[in-house]
Description:
By secondary structure, the protein is α/β, with parallel strands linked by helices. It has helices at 2-22, 52-67, 81-93, 106-118, 143-160, 178-197, 213-226, 238-250, 266-273, 285-300, 335-340, 346-349, 354-360, and strands spanning 39-44, 72-76, 96-101, 122-126, 137-141, 167-172, 201-207, 230-235, 280-282, 309-312, 319-325, 328-330. The structure holds beta-D-glucopyranose. Beta-D-glucopyranose (BGC) is lined by residues 49-50, 52, 127-128, 173, 177, 179, 211, 237, 262-263.
Amino acid sequence: MRKGILTLTATMALLGSTVAACGDDSSTAPADGDKAVGKVGVILPDSKSSARWETADRKYLKEAFDAAGVESDIQNAQGDKSNFQTIADQMITNGAKVLLIVNLDSGTGKAVIDKAKSQGVAVIDYDRLTLGGGAEYYVSFDNTAVGKLQGEGLVKCLTDQKAEKPIVARLNGSPTDNNATLFAAGYNGVLQPKFDSGEYVAGPDQSVPDWDNTKAGTIFEQMLTSEPKIGGVLAANDGLGNAAIAILKKQKLNGQVPVTGQDATVQGLQNILAGDQCMTVYKAIKKEADAAAKLAIALAKGEKGETNGTTKDSESGADVPSVLLEPQAIFKDSVKDVVADGFVTKEELCTGDFAKACTDAGVQ
Ligand code: BGC
């Protein structure tokens, strides 16, 4: 690992001086320091498992690279694993010096990291850790903390409802996303003791392949058929939560059965305002994008970036230098915080029927 970084640093320094000597032909001069910074390629995973990738990550990453005068190429693999690899290959061929990837699973991520390393291109795992991958850096949120907030959020909503021995269903994220494993560790840490004590009853518990919202609806419909008395739903993100809410609506159970989420999407926040969703987890993606862009630029310049910890790769055992950010739980009375932070606008949130709920919730 260390050796890898040193080799890369040497390569970068060499490339940097060559580019500088030949003159920089890109229209944006490297404003960030005096060393030429190569292009950065970003591969987002899809646009369906969460709105965040296109509405937040793409926007904030582009802004961060533009502000630093660094050329970026941001593409979306649209959930297609072979496309993911093709995009990475093209980025490397087109001269990317650093890749920032959100893997579709660890295998896809590792294939890209191996290829990149063989070409002297550094890789940052963005949001999802590639197990056994060996990326230079990992930038994300404290994902176990995300899950803990979801578990505690569900407990708060069930307590507010004075639910007695509620049957709790779990709609977990993709089994191939390490984040989903961490989220589950977080919320199971809260729920398991309640199952063990008999305060809550463990209901159906299933993972949703690729975080597919349509599959989530089918899975939840089966859950509710097999267990019509589900009293609470731990859904791992807003998309899965919305799928469960749609099924609950068909049975006129929405609003009576608390459902969790994650990502503070417009849809999730509207479900909260409507009283159909109990909470979401807000992750300030601007901070994540800024941190990743800073590290990418440092790598492209052959410098060491700033991190605030390490993350254990459970497959290789490596401690990956990381930037991990703190998530925030959002309930109806704190929806306004997400708007105040500029993550969603009042205009997109407070449309039509939601105007009154926004006013009632103090959204400005
Ligand atoms: C991300 C979540 C997102 C999910 C589905 C996870 O890896 O951390 O924010 O909702 O993937 O895209």
